[in-house]
Amino acid sequence: MYFNSNIKLMRKRRGRTQDEVAFALQMKRPTLSGYENGVAQPGIQQMVAYSDYFGISIDTLVKVDLSQLKESELRQLENGFDVFVKGSKLRVLTTTVDSSNQDNIELVTEKAKAGYTRGFANPEFVGQLPVFQLPFLSREKKYRTFQISGDSMLPIPNGAWITGEFVQDWENIKDGEAYIVLTLDEGIVFKIIENKIIKTGKVGLISLNPTYKPYELPVVEIREIWRFIHYISEELPTGEVTSADLAYTINQLKQDLALIKDRILPTK
């Protein structure tokens, strides 16, 4: 374990004293000193506090010897991207299974979204979500369905149910595809993603509705990402039909009707 040496290294890289970090983490300086010197072992709450403070996953703080990384690698890590440990090893999903030990598809309703932001990693909370199965989806992948709100992704309407596939390795996120993103501050958002993780430690979030401006989000503010699979809605997506479209459709119908008549009616 490298936790003690890593927290000391990252504190010094930030130019912070033990007193400053102890104050920020609401702990006594001797306690913090004990963690850094390896004479005391932090509990899970203290590890989470350090992880949030440095923006680095607990797995990385514990398992990766940060002193062996290059300066460029450390800078990327400080920008919020754990480039040295694959996502599949970092993101352990809380899930439920049915009587045959197959993953359920949990349903996160509009009312449950606020609670999900806080309880997404809590087995008790996730276990209380409604569940269902879709037989046409792969049993080798994990899915979850979220109810979206707002008009930022029109023509997908407000209140639609979006099913996503859990993304373990965020390096595999493809530009221009739609994803459900669980964020620290905004909760659940449904957007088109531009993957800038390797270069800047951020993702670009783009709405289908052009009235909403694109923006960027650091990956340290993201907790889960789900790749869009399909949606279910009671509403038919709306779209504008121009007079030219109507004229073209009517003309095609006339041609088809004429062709049918030629085939059915006998020639004189």
Overview of the molecule:
- The chain has about 270 residues and is of the alpha+beta class.
- About 35% of the residues lie in helices and about 20% in strands.
Across the major sheet, the strand order is 2-1-3-4-9-5-6-7-8
Rounded average pLDDT: 85
In terms of per-residue confidence, which ranges show pLDDT below 50 for 5 or more consecutive residues? 84-90
Q: Give the name of the CATH architecture of the largest domain.
A: Ribbon
Bulk shape = elongated
Estimate the helix proportion, in percent: 25-40%
The N- to C-terminal Cα distance equals 94 Å
Largest beta sheet, briefly? Answer: 9 strands, mixed
Q: What is the number of domains? A: 2
For the CA atoms, what is the radius of gyration? 25 Å
Number of helices: 11
Order of helices and strands: HHHHHHHEHHEEEEEHEEEH
CATH class of the largest domain: Mainly Beta
Q: Pairing-aware structural class of the strands and helices?
A: alpha+beta
Brief summary:
With 268 residues, the chain is of the alpha+beta class.
Ordered list of secondary-structure elements with their pairings:
Blueprint: H1 3-13, H2 18-24, H3 29-37, H4 44-54, H5 58-63, H6 71-78, H7 87-90, E1 105-108, H8 113-119, H9 123-127, E2 131-132, E3 143-147, E4 161-166, E5 178-183, E6 187-196, H10 197-200, E7 202-206, E8 215-218, E9 222-232, H11 243-264
Parallel strand pairs: 1-3
Antiparallel strand pairs: 1-2, 3-4, 4-9, 5-6, 5-9, 6-7, 7-8
Helix pairs in contact: 2-3
Main attributes?
20% strand, 434 Repressor (Amino-terminal Domain), single chain, Umud Fragment, subunit A, elongated, 2 domains, 9-stranded mixed sheet, 9 strands, 268 residues, alpha+beta
